[in-house]
Amino acid sequence: MSHLLNRRRFLKQSSAAALSLPFLTGFTRKVAPSDRLRVAHIGLGGMGTQHLKWFAGLPEVEVAALCDLDETHLATAQKTLLGLQPDAKVQLYSDFRRILERKDIDAITCATPDHWHAQVAILAFEAGKDVYGEKPLSYSVREGQKMLKSLKRHDRIFQLGTQIHAGDNYHRVVEIIRSGAIGNVHTVRLWKPGAPPVLGPANYQEPPSTLNWDFWLGPAPYSKYTPERCHFNYRYFLDYSGGVYQDFWSHIADVVWWAINPQNLTTVSAKGEVGEGIGDTPKWIDIDYQFDNLKIHWTTTPPNVPGAANRGIGAYFEGDKGTLLCDYNTREINIGGMLMNDVETVPLSIKRSPGHQQNFVNAVKTRTQPESNLEYARQMTLPMHLGLISWRLGRELHWNPKKEKFRHDGEANDLLSRDYRKGWDWI
C-alpha cells in the first residue's frame, strides 16, 4: 500500500523542476519504481506497437498491460516488449475495460481503429486514467465534443498522437508565421497525394479464431467479416474512418492551426470521387474552407505553387508580404523574391519539446495539458469532419461556429454523429 501511495503522491504533485530538466535517456537517469508512470497500451497493430516501443524507452514509464482483440497482435507485442525489457512483467487483455478497472494503472495509449477512439478515451477519463490517443481525435464531431466535456469533468490529461508536432521544423514555422515575417496570411493550401488501394471483391468468411470480430466492430454497423475491411484497411471504409484524407489531415493541418488558429469557419465546399473496389472513402477530394479573413484549400494533388510538386505532403502559407512552404522537416520562405529557409531576425520564442511522449509523461506528472491537448486537437480536427460531410452530400455547406452545427441543413447535421450499434453504446 505504501508503494502505491508514494507513487500516486509523486504523480499528483506539480513539479516545475520536472519541466525545466532536459530530457535524458534511460542510460543516464534512473527512476525509482515507485515514481514510474504505469501505462497500458490498447490496440497493438502497427502504430500501437510504436506506442509500446516509445513508452518502453522512457525511464519514467513502466509498461503494465497490453490489450488487443487479435491474439496474434497481442503475442507479437508481448514478444516486442520482452525484446526491449527481458524482465518485464506485463498482463495481457482482450477487453480494454478490464484494464480501466485496475487502480494501479495511471494512463493508457490508444491506437485502435478510428471508430473506437472516443469510447476508449471517455471510458478511460471516467476511470481516472490519462490518455495518449492516436489521430484522428474521433470518428465524428459529436464524439469530439463528448470527449472534451468528459476530460474537463474528470480533470484528465490527453495528448493527440501528432508526433510531428514535437519536431523543430513545425516549431520554427510557427515562430516565423506568428512574427509577421510574411505578413497577414490570407490563404493556406494543404495537400496529400495518394489514392486508396483497390480492395475486393469481398471475401466473406468466418473470422479467424484469434480475432474477436464482433468486438472489433463495436459501435460501428454490423458487417460480415472479410479481411479487406479489417486491420490496416479499415481506414478505407466510411463505417470506420475517412480514407487517405482523414488519415493525413492532422499531420499537416496541425502546423496551420498552431501558427494562425483559424477562426469562425463559415462555408465548406468539397468535391471528389469514391475510390474503386469495395472501399467507399474518397479516391480524391478537394475542399475549400472559408474562415474569417482566411481561405484554406485541401487538394489531393499538389497545388500549382513553387516547390509543391516535389513534396508528398505540404502546407503553403500566402501572406501579403511573402510565402512560406513547409512539409514535416523542411521549409522555404519567399519574401520580396528572396528565397531562404529561415528568417534570422525572428527569435526562438517557443519552448522546444522534450519529445512527444515525454511531453505527455511530464503533463501527467504536473497536471498541465500537453502540447497536442484535447481542446486544441478538437478545433484542429473539426474541419476535417465537416469536409468529409460536404463530400458525402456533394454540396457546399454553411457552418455556425458558435452553435457547432450546419445552418438550416438537417441532412448535414445528421452526419455530425451516428447511432451506435445496439449493445455498444457505452458513452
UniProtKB/TrEMBL annotation:
<dbReference type="InterPro" id="IPR000683">
    <property type="entry name" value="Gfo/Idh/MocA-like_OxRdtase_N"/>
</dbReference>
<dbReference type="InterPro" id="IPR043906">
    <property type="entry name" value="Gfo/Idh/MocA_OxRdtase_bact_C"/>
</dbReference>
<dbReference type="InterPro" id="IPR036291">
    <property type="entry name" value="NAD(P)-bd_dom_sf"/>
</dbReference>
<dbReference type="InterPro" id="IPR050463">
    <property type="entry name" value="Gfo/Idh/MocA_oxidrdct_glycsds"/>
</dbReference>
<dbReference type="InterPro" id="IPR006311">
    <property type="entry name" value="TAT_signal"/>
</dbReference>
<protein>
    <submittedName>
        <fullName>Gfo/Idh/MocA family oxidoreductase</fullName>
    </submittedName>
</protein>
<feature type="domain" description="Gfo/Idh/MocA-like oxidoreductase N-terminal">
    <location>
        <begin position="37"/>
        <end position="161"/>
    </location>
</feature>
<feature type="domain" description="Gfo/Idh/MocA-like oxidoreductase bacterial type C-terminal">
    <location>
        <begin position="205"/>
        <end position="425"/>
    </location>
</feature>
<dbReference type="Pfam" id="PF01408">
    <property type="entry name" value="GFO_IDH_MocA"/>
</dbReference>
<dbReference type="InterPro" id="IPR019546">
    <property type="entry name" value="TAT_signal_bac_arc"/>
</dbReference>
<dbReference type="Pfam" id="PF19051">
    <property type="entry name" value="GFO_IDH_MocA_C2"/>
</dbReference>
